[in-house]
Fold:
Amino acid sequence: MTRQEVIKAARKLYAVPGYAQTTVDKIAREARVSPATVYAQCGGKEGLLRTLMDIWTTSPTVGRIIADSAAAPTGRTKLEVLAAGYAAHAEEAGDIMRIIERAAPSSPAAQAFLDVADQRHIEALEMIVEGIASNGDLAEGLSVEDAAKIIFFHFRNPQLVLAVETFGWGVDRGTRWLVDRVAAAILKD
Structure:
């Protein structure tokens, strides 16, 4: 229970005022534990950031997205299922994604965690694209790796936030637009 309270406090404080501005003492105060407990339970600031990255990238939602995409019958429906999964995952862990993305430029540890998250993301996308390829829906001459990178480029959190929030399109229009772009880039005509 204490560990979860510490993680919850770090998640809140890393979001506002930010990772760089948050100290172990602030996390301890927010969680109502000692700073020594923060280190012992979670490995300090970096350990907490890694824990958050693991929550983001190993969420049961990720497994459901992969399974649901695999079960979809066509390349287009696989992308639609994937888009709905991205929206659900952003709802669940979007704050963590933003925390790590914002911390990465000034923190080598955060950048390393973002690199791990991105690698896990691309590997999951490659599994989905392999399903598209096995259906015969992948565009001629496009590798699984390149198709996964195209999806990654379009659907990673900053682009999803841009379409949905910054442009004000909302989830339905934003994800539909992104699916159309990705489908045009990676699926057979």
